[in-house]
Design brief:
By secondary structure, the chain is an alpha+beta fold. The chain contains 3 helices and 8 strands, in the order H-E-E-H-E-E-H-E-E-E-E. Among the domains are: 42 residues; 99 residues, TonB (TolA/TonB C-terminal domain, 2-Layer Sandwich). A 4-stranded antiparallel sheet has the order 1-8-3-4, with helices on one face. Strands 2-5 form a two-stranded antiparallel ribbon. The protein has a two-stranded antiparallel ribbon with strand order 6-7. Strand 3 and strand 4 form a beta hairpin.
Length: 233
């Protein structure tokens, strides 16, 4: 395979130096060598591909197996269904009940009794060797009657150290008999039993005062709670 490369005649300018002419000639020769090398590589690759394809075509052999003659076919016939036999239903007879037992009518013999029984409920004695909280009654408040009193819990630290004291509290009673607006008036020792006393007083329940058939709230109540240790006998 040959490739025609057009050669453009270059008019030599006699005014150019000899060095420039030599460089131009060298560059042209190198370009021609690269083009020839590419052409040779393409020709060799094309020839190799054609040779490989010819080899594949010549070595391609298809094995065709001969058909198998006389394939045995067996046909099975299913047996006929058996006839359904319908049996008559079985009627069960109830068992014979046992004979009735004779009933004897016997009148119990009773005797008049003149004894009178008096039930006496058991008595319980409760002893408490721990701290005892004694609530004081209201001072100067006769209109409201407490119906539920809850003793405050003795502070653990004060119980461990054997500290006794008291707390004076002021409070109001609403129309439902609940204790509201609880305030500490005075206490000894200070801030030792205040929280326990306030927490317990808020759980108290009073019978609210009634005026002309209506429940009214009451104000300016006071109470003193004493915290004392139980005396051992």
């Amino acid at each position: 395979m040959s490739v025609a490369i057009p050669v453009v005649p270059v008019a030599m300018n006699t005014s150019l130096p000899a060095t420039a002419v030599a460089e131009f000639t060298l560059t042209t020769m190198q370009l021609l060598k690269k083009v020839m090398a590419i052409i040779v590589a393409a020709v060799v690759t094309t020839f190799a591909l054609f040779s490989f394809m010819a080899f594949l075509i010549s070595s391609d052999q298809v094995l065709i197996e001969a058909p198998i003659n006389g394939i045995p076919i067996t046909v099975y016939q299913t047996p006929e269904d058996s006839k359904v036999v319908i049996k008559p239903p079985v009627t069960l007879q109830p068992p014979t009940p046992p004979p009735a037992m004779p009933i004897n009518k016997v009148s119990p013999a009773t005797e008049p009794s003149n004894k009178t029984y008096i039930y006496q409920g058991p008595t319980f004695e409760v002893s408490d060797s721990g701290p005892v909280v004694t609530p004081m009654s209201n001072i100067g408040n006769r209109d409201a009657r407490p119906i539920i009193r809850v003793n405050p819990k003795y502070p653990m630290e004060a119980s461990r150290k054997g500290i006794e004291g008291w707390v004076q509290l002021a409070f109001d009673i609403n129309t439902l008999g609940e204790v509201i607006n609880v305030k500490v008036i005075d206490s000894a020792p200070k801030r030792v039993f205040d929280k326990a006393a306030v927490r317990a007083l808020r759980k108290w329940k009073y019978r609210a005062k009634s005026v002309e058939g209506k429940q009214v709230s009451q104000h300016n109540f006071s109470v003193q709670l004493d915290f004392t240790m139980a005396k051992e006998a």
